[in-house]
Specification:
One of its GO terms (cellular component) is plasma membrane. One of its GO terms (biological process) is carbohydrate metabolic process. It is an enzyme of class 3 (hydrolase). This is glucan endo-1,3-beta-D-glucosidase. By secondary structure, the protein is an alpha/beta fold. The protein has one domain (5-416): TIM Barrel, CATH 3.20.20. Helix content is 33%, strand content 17%. The protein has 14 helices and 15 strands. Helix 4 (78-83) links the parallel strand 2 (70-73) and strand 3 (90-95). Helix 6 packs across helix 7 (141-160).
Length: 418
């Protein structure tokens, strides 16, 4: 099948000459190479739908300040992939929607992999490909039909290159795939999507790749502010939580309730896959500003939510249903993106402004000490991304980040709070 125009243009860009050497020099100048990357379950989404964002190497000191060594990208932009070379940062790289038809064919998947991923290995640590984003809830029947074939073809291309044990293939779902989510024990997929989700779950079970969900308590609270307590949505530890009468499990916050609803949905749809498939949160966040009718979008609530997410992940806690499976979370997002369509909130999810200064004060407890780009990873997502047992005890003092100058550019620096 011939490649679509959008995908062809992307492949041509990947073949084109880039300022790789300059980017690598700048990136390495910003960071130390003395210590290894720690094991951590926290990641962040690095979207670039903006016309005022800094160059990709400017993200490195921000990630260092946050102690984050896992990043999700939405496309394989050559300059970005090269900027992360030799940093030890683990990348989830998106396969854009417009490429799905092409990569659904084995030859197209091989070509895409050759042009978009292989040139950056092994210097850039790519650990997963995320095929499309929220495809099943996007009302595009062609994309929906191509989703699983694209995943299978890419996995096959990786296997042919002996990379299938280093790079997983998955896709991220909007929680709108659920027809029922409350209480969590009643979680079930939409009936019209079962024909697609059941074989996707078989694929995850066969390959060992995670089931990704974009989970946003913000939307649930915004839709029902009278029925959902704000502190429950913000993951505040002081909130009494909500019981599930069917299971006797107690839910301290809405995020873990959403994850367990998805676990119950998987179990109801595909009991065999439910025994082995792990859910990971590919996006979650809270906007710091919005339109006049988006009253929950405030910097105070965003700071509380993202701080609590980081605290929750740092504690290596699972959900009430899966207490022994620590949550793995990618916060959305690194920067505010001024070109995103939709309500104003869509352009205000970032932890940082385009000038690399914080959008709001954020306090959190880092999971396993400081992260230093340029080192080697200790643990990580190899062999289908089972984190090693190293450094499993939660550690860390309470930190705040503030603006500082790093290598001539504005960045985030950590300061021990009194």
């Amino acid at each position: 099948m011939p490649l679509r125009d959008g995908c062809r243009r992307q492949l041509q860009r990947a073949r084109g000459l880039c300022l790789a050497a300059a980017l690598c020099v700048l990136a390495l100048a910003l960071v130390s190479d003395a210590s290894p990357t720690p094991v951590s379950l926290l990641g962040i989404n690095y979207g670039r739908v903006g016309n005022n964002l800094p160059p990709p190497q400017a993200a490195l000191p921000l990630l260092q300040g946050l102690g984050i060594a896992r990043v999700r990208l939405y496309d394989p932009e050559p300059g970005v992939l090269r900027a992360f070379a030799k940093t030890g940062i683990e990348l989830y790289v998106g396969v854009p929607d417009q490429c799905l038809a092409a990569v659904a064919e084995p030859a197209g998947a091989t070509s895409w992999l050759k042009d978009s991923i292989l040139p950056y290995l092994p210097d850039t640590k790519i650990v997963a490909l995320t095929v499309g984003n929220e495809v099943l809830t996007g009302n595009d029947t062609a994309l929906t039909r191509n989703l699983l074939p694209a995943m299978e073809s890419l996995h096959g291309a990786l296997a042919a290159a002996n990379l299938d044990k280093q790079i997983a293939v998955t896709t991220a779902h909007n929680l709108g795939v659920l027809g029922t989510s409350y209480p969590p024990s009643a979680g079930a997929f939409r009936k019209d999507l079962l024909q697609y989700l059941c074989p996707i779950l078989d694929f995850h079970a066969k390959t060992g790749s995670p089931f990704l969900v974009n989970a946003y308590p913000y939307f649930a609270y915004s839709d029902d502010p009278k029925g959902i307590h704000l502190d429950y949505a913000l993951l505040e530890p002081s909130n009494p939580g909500v019981p599930d009468a069917n299971t006797g499990l107690h839910y301290p916050n809405l995020l873990v309730a959403q994850v367990d609803a998805a676990y119950h949905a998987i179990s109801a749809a595909n009991s065999a896959a439910a025994r082995v498939v792990e859910i990971r949160i590919s996006e979650t966040g809270w906007p710091s500003a919005g339109d006049a009718n988006e009253k929950a979008a405030t910097p105070e609530s965003a700071a509380r939510y993202n701080s609590n997410v980081m605290r929750l992940v740092a504690e290596w806690k699972g959900t009430p249903l899966k207490p022994n499976v620590p949550l793995r979370v990618y916060v959305f997002a690194l920067f505010n993106e001024n070109m995103k369509p939709g309500p104003a909130s869509e352009r205000n999810y970032g932890l940082f402004k385009p000038d690399s200064t914080p959008v709001y004060p954020l306090t959190y407890k880092p999971a396993h000490g400081d992260f230093t780009p340029g080192g080697n990873s200790t643990g990580g997502d190899n062999d289908y991304y089972d984190i090693s047992a190293a450094s499993r005890e939660p550690t860390g003092r309470r930190w705040t980040w503030a603006q500082a100058a790093v290598a001539g550019g504005a960045a985030a620096a950590l300061m021990v709070a009194a």
